[in-house]
Amino acid sequence: MRAAAHERAVLGYLSLFSSVGTLLCCALPSLLVLIGLGATVASFLSALPWLVTLSHHKNWVFAVSGLLIAGNFLYFYALAPRLHAQGNACSVDASDACNTASRVSRVALRLSAAVYLMGFFSAYFLGPVLVRLDS
């Protein structure tokens, strides 16, 4: 029971941080340049030079992030309800805490997915769309 809660917490944090990583390496710089803040991107990258290395491997970053988020969706919507129905997910004494944690996890998971999708669109589709609109 405790291992399942720990596993869910680890998956939630990994998916949230990986989606934020995709946002920082690929989506945020593109958005800032798009709205005319190229100097901000330059100073941002000089302060955090590891983001350049991360952006060179954006295919891997997006693949791993997508797998983590998909795994978390699978766990949260397929496996966790089964564990909860069997009584293995939460103790009887802390049912309110379990419901609150589930609600917070659901919000964090959806936020992670939204950030990931914004980063994915920005990294892979925004450039070609803007080039097509420009010509």
What does this structure look like?
With 135 residues, the protein is mainly alpha-helical. 88% of the residues lie in helices and 0% in strands. The protein has five helices and no strands. Helix 4 runs antiparallel to helix 5 (95-134). The termini are far apart.
What descriptive keywords fit this protein?
135 residues, mainly alpha
Layout of helices and strands, plus pairs?
Layout: H1 2-34, H2 38-47, H3 50-56, H4 58-86, H5 95-134
Helix pairs in contact: 1-2, 1-4, 1-5, 4-5
Secondary-structure-based class equals mainly alpha
The fraction of residues in strands falls at under 5%
Envelope shape: elongated
Helix coverage percent: over 70%
- Average per-residue pLDDT, rounded, comes to 75
Order of helices and strands: HHHHH
Rg, Å, rounded:
19 Å
Largest sheet: none
Q: How many angstroms does the end-to-end distance come to? A: 58 Å
Low-confidence stretches: none
The total strand number stands at: 0
Helical segment tally? Answer: 5
What's the gist of this structure?
The chain is mainly alpha-helical. The chain has five helices and no strands.
